[in-house]
Amino acid sequence: MxxxxxxxxxxxxxxxxxxxxxxxxxxxxxxTQDITGQTTQVLAQIDALLARAGTDKSRILMCQIFIADxxxxxxxxxxxxxxxxxxxxxxxxxxxxxxxxxxxxxEMVVTAAV
Length: 114
What we know:
The chain has two helices and seven strands; from the N terminus they run ββββαβαββ. 25% of the residues lie in helices and 33% in strands.
């Protein structure tokens, strides 16, 4: 069985199947903030979704990060490194990408064990 969360016409925010949570790309609700603020928002949203699935950030299997400007990479990493639990840093990829809205500076896609 596939369990979907916050289903919309275009996408669901998360799907859970066979003990794995698949999150949609998470972006900042307030895109007026800088990379530090947006990264903080995105990670809080990831925490909230994972909690709804009955899991947490220590069980992340993979994270894909899309960043609008690689000049923001060090500041984004600083927030990430404070957030990720010691000894539980997941495999991760970060690429520079044109995001769907001009104000968005970062988008993260997470897969986690439940």
